[in-house]
Specification:
This protein is α/β, with parallel strands linked by helices. The chain has helices at 68-85, 104-112, 127-140, 145-153, 161-169, 182-192, 219-229, 244-249, 260-265, 275-287; strands spanning 48-49, 55-56, 90-94, 173-181, 196-203, 209-213, 233-238, 252-256, 270-272.
Length: 288
């Protein structure tokens, strides 16, 4: 037989043939190591277990059959289909600002008359650079933590957010994961009826912003990975640069009305325009 995309006979290998064969010209070396080995008794091959419980395939020539590619690819598709059917409970991970709640810093900028505070992660990919700039501006203009919290307390969730969350709760679990801070999150949690996974803001005795502490590196991505490790099927959605890692770590990721620059740079993620469209996609994926 001639070598092709599904057949390769490597007679130059010092181990050739690695299994006994009566027809060395038809011995397929495409799968030097059988992709089905780790599936145990489900592989369908002629194997046996040693006294020490080690799977031995010395008598199996399925991977080296001329048509082995067709058989092995078929088995892998079968296993993947079964894995999808057995996937865990749904966990929807959502960014907060721009998805469920207005941008807090934009509201602060408007009320305090400091337009430079309008910059968000939609404009500046570096969160550390963004936060240091915010803290400097707040201290320069006398904007304390108490002032910011008072502004947040007068803000309302985005239109449709509460209804969206109610519908999601009927599909599975919901986690709001944000780069905001627990001091900002407390009044928001009361309005949304859900806790928020977030970070901690540091202040001095007079309430001036002095620093911030991330609970862990890349909080959003780390949290999504933890949920997946617990067996959840995770769908994530956010609107900006700092959501990319979370979307990539999830089983399914969606941007919601992202800036054009973000949308163009990360075309691998589907983008929706509103909560209604996002719910339709989450519902479809949850029932797939």
């Amino acid at each position: 037989m001639e070598n092709s995309s599904s057949f390769f006979c490597n007679k130059d290998c010092k181990y050739f043939p690695c299994h006994e064969t009566k027809d060395p010209d038809s011995f397929n070396c495409l799968f030097c190591y059988c992709p089905l080995y780790s599936y145990g008794e489900l592989c369908g091959g002629h194997f046996k277990y040693s006294k020490r419980g080690i799977k031995s395939c010395i008598d199996c020539t399925i991977p080296h059959h001329p048509n082995s590619a067709e058989y092995i690819n078929g088995k892998l598709k079968e296993f993947n289909a079964a894995k999808t059917d057995e996937r865990g409970q749904l966990m929807v991970c959502l960014d907060l600002e721009g998805v469920l709640f207005p941008e807090i810093w934009e509201a602060v900028a408007k009320e305090t008359g400091v337009p430079e505070l309008c910059r968000t992660t939609r404009d500046e990919p570096s969160y550390d650079k963004l936060m240091k700039g915010r803290m400097e501006l707040c201290n320069e203009h006398g904007i304390t933590l108490a002032k910011i919290v008072s502004i947040i307390e007068r803000m309302d969730p985005l239109p449709g957010a509460l209804e969206f969350l109610d519908k999601l709760k009927n599909l599975g679990s919901v986690a709001i994961i944000s780069d905001t801070f627990e001091q900002f999150a407390k009044p928001v949690e009361k309005k949304l009826g859900l806790g928020i996974y977030c970070n901690v803001l540091e202040t001095d005795d007079e309430g001036r912003l002095t620093g911030y502490k991330m609970r862990c590196r890349d909080t959003k991505t780390t949290t999504v990975r933890a949920f997946k490790a617990m067996g959840y099927f995770v769908i994530a959605s956010g609107d900006s640069y700092n959501d990319v890692g979370m979307l990539g770590a999830a089983d399914r990721g969606f941007f919601i009305h992202p800036p054009l620059a973000v949308k163009e740079q990360y075309k691998s993620f589907a983008a929706v325009e509103d909560l209604e469209e996002l719910f339709a996609n989450i519902y479809r994926e949850s029932k797939a």
